[in-house]
Design a protein that fits this description.
Elements (H helix, E strand, L loop, with lengths): L3 E5 L4 H12 L3 E6 L7 H10 L4 E4 L5 H10 L4 E4 L6 H6 L1 H21 L4 E7 L23 H19 L3 E7 L1 E3 L18 H9 L6 E4 L11 E2 L1 E3 H17 L4 E6 L5 E2 H12 L5 E4 L14 H6 L8 H14 L3
Parallel strand pairs: 1-2, 1-4, 2-3, 4-5, 5-6, 6-11, 7-10, 8-13
Antiparallel strand pairs: 9-12
The structure holds nicotinamide-adenine-dinucleotide (NAD) and UDP-4-deoxy-4-formamido-beta-L-arabinopyranose.
Nicotinamide-adenine-dinucleotide (NAD) binds next to α1, β2, α5 and β5.
Length: 336
């Protein structure tokens, strides 16, 4: 009998790719998403890729009655919790909205999981919990720092709540700390849908190449790195999606109640390297200029991935050129 997984936020950027991978791995999927940062069209796209359908409930994870109905109907094997707000800058302007959506959302979910004795949870955390680090790569033991934004605080609080809850209940959880997810499904049917002016590098690059934005500003070239621009660990969203499938099967056999994994490639790229990769693989010239530093940016961070490689048996397959090729193919298909 196939196992049924609840995916919160399953129509979003990472969630949609994960639903595709879960279906490919033989799981039945149920999605709850309030369409706050996605659209119902994504469901059709996912089903086109996988050739399989899934049930969607359009509701908020803070809507207890909606969750109750789903947990009463299905015997969930596990839950993957993506649903959250994710814009760092917005969280500074609307902190309460972030605590409510991200922290209360998790508490609401845990309440219903407890009632229905569902014990496996995969949680979307972020490398943001490490803050500014002195000597990357960061391991899972690298100390967590006080967050600079309510978004970061919400992720730290959620990790703490899950860890504390699991101390007292028969409960297993894997915290996945994502590095910088980019790219899109190679079919170009699903990808990132940023609202308004993108804050993140890759959607800004693709929108500039598409003529939607006039010019990309590189935020600072006076950092202590090879070419002076910041270093990040960019990870293809489909590789990241596959890590969730590995995490789900590990949840069943793990000895600890809670375990945490970095999910990155283990390689750092500078902003200029990302631009060069985009230009080379797509045979384009990008209009960009060097500007001042962006407040709050970390100079250099990338993941130590030994743990996720060895314990989950997961390694990233796509490189930065694949990421840039798929991101551009997705951008070109938008609006069609
Ligand atoms: P996204 O905004 O594309 O997807 C989130 C989905 O959740 C959307 O479909 C949205 O409509 C839905 N949603 C939001 N709040 C909800 C609620 N209260 N109830 C029901 N649905 C709700 O974001 P994403 O990039 O796919 O991120 C997924 C998760 O990964 C988030 O928890 C995010 O914090 C985390 N994360 C993202 C990144 C990144 O750079 N994209 C990096 C690290 C961690
Ligand atoms: C990447 C690099 C910028 C835009 C954010 C969140 C983090 C996590 C991932 C959720 C930096 C530079 C960017 C531009 C630029 N999300 N840049 N010009 O800041 O590493 O992380 O997303 O958990 O919490 O903070 O990602 O894509 O914004 O920036 O030069 O127009 O690109 O300075 O060096 P970041 P990003």
């Amino acid at each position: 009998m196939s196992k049924t997984i609840l995916v919160t936020g399953g129509l979003g950027y990472i969630g949609s790719h994960t639903v595709v991978e879960l279906q490919a791995a033989g799981y039945d999927v149920v999605v709850i998403d309030n369409l706050n940062n996605s659209s119902q069209e994504v469901k059709t796209r996912i089903e086109e890729i996988s050739g399989q359908s899934f049930e969607l409930t359009v509701a908020d994870v803070n809507d207890n009655a909606a969750l109750e109905e789903l947990f009463a109907k299905y015997n969930f094997e596990g839950v993957i919790h993506f649903a959250a707000h994710k814009a760092v800058g917005e969280s500074v302007d609307y902190p309460v909205m972030y605590y409510q959506n991200n922290v209360s959302g998790l508490i609401s979910l845990l309440g219903v999981m407890e009632k229905h004795a569902v014990s496996n949870l995969i949680f979307s955390s972020s490398c943001t919990v490490y803050g500014e680090t002195k000597n990357p790569p960061v391991t899972e033991q690298t100390p967590i720092q006080k967050a600079e934004s309510p978004y970061g605080t919400s992720k730290i609080l959620c990790e703490e709540i899950i860890t504390d809850y699991a101390k007292h209940k028969d409960f297993k959880s894997i915290l996945l700390r994502y590095f910088n997810p980019v790219g899109a499904h190679p079919s170009s049917k699903i990808g990132e849908l940023p609202l308004g002016v993108p804050n993140n590098l890759v959607p800004y690059i693709t929108q500039t190449a598409a003529g939607i934005r006039e010019q990309l500003t590189v935020f600072g070239d006076d950092y202590n790195t090879e070419d002076g621009t910041c270093i990040r660990d960019y990870i293809h969203v489909l590789d990241l999606a596959k890590a969730h499938v590995k995490a789900l099967s590990y949840c069943d056999k793990m000895a600890e109640r809670v375990d945490v994994f970095n999910v990155g490639t283990g390689n750092g790229n500078t902003v200029l390297e990302v631009i060069r990769a985009f230009e080379t693989v797509n045979n384009l010239k990008l209009n960009y200029k060097i500007g001042p530093r962006r407040g709050g940016d970390i100079e250099k961070i990338f993941a130590e991935t030994t743990k996720v490689n060895d314990v989950l048996g997961w390694t990233a397959q796509y490189d930065i050129k694949d990421m840039m090729q798929h991101a551009w193919a997705w951008q070109q298909g938008l609006g069609e």
